[in-house]
Amino acid sequence: MTESNAPVVGSVAAPWPVPTLRRRFGALMVDWLLCLLIARFMGPFPNNWAPFVLIVEYAFFIGLFGQTPGMRLAKIACVSVADGGPIGIPRAFVRGVLLAVLVPALVMDRNRRGWHDRAAGSVMIATQPSAAADRSS
Questions:
Q1: What distance in Å separates the CA atoms of residue 61 and residue 43, rounded to the nearest whole number?
Q2: What are the structural domain ranges in the chain?
Q3: Fewer Cβ within 10 Å of end Cβ, the chain: N or C?
């Protein structure tokens, strides 16, 4: 990474700021809690529905708006690598399915893009700089 906390693509700094893992994990936890609350109303085994609710939440919110409610609170977004816009529902659905598997999210490159981001052609960006990033640069 460069001093400006921007990821490196090839030998050139990319135009988007990389969010901290703390922000990404915090957003995921908020979204997971929302999914657990929604899943409680979906039948006799509510925790079994939570991963499916998360996938649908990701497909809808990331696909259309680039942010889930948790991402909005954490001030991060998931955008297309190609143009910086929303990735669309089909690609967000693929990203959500792979995120539910968890392993692709744990394997990241130096730009913190997991396999789920690579498969969807997406990247996580910080919509506002974090205090930790400001102190480290």
A1: 24
A2: 18-136
A3: C
Instruction: Specify the residue for token string 């690598």.
Output: 81
> Cα–Cα distance between 77 and 93 in angstroms, integer?
16
Question: CB count, 10 Å around CB of 132?
Answer: 12
| Residue type, position 110, single letter | R
Which tokens sit at 4? 């400006």
The pLDDT tens digits for 73-95 are 999 999 998 888 899 999 999 99
Closest C-alpha to 126, from 59, 61, 79: 79
Tokens 């913190």, residue located: 112
Which residue shows structure tokens 């977004």? 77
The tens digit of pLDDT for each residue in 97-131 reads 988 887 666 788 877 888 888 889 999 999 887 66
pTM over 0.85: no
State the alpha helices, DSSP H only, in the chain. 21-39, 46-65, 69-74, 89-101, 103-106, 115-120, 131-136
Which residue type does 44 have? P
Q: Could you give the 3-state DSSP secondary structure of residue 54?
A: helix
Paired tokens of 123: 């990247």
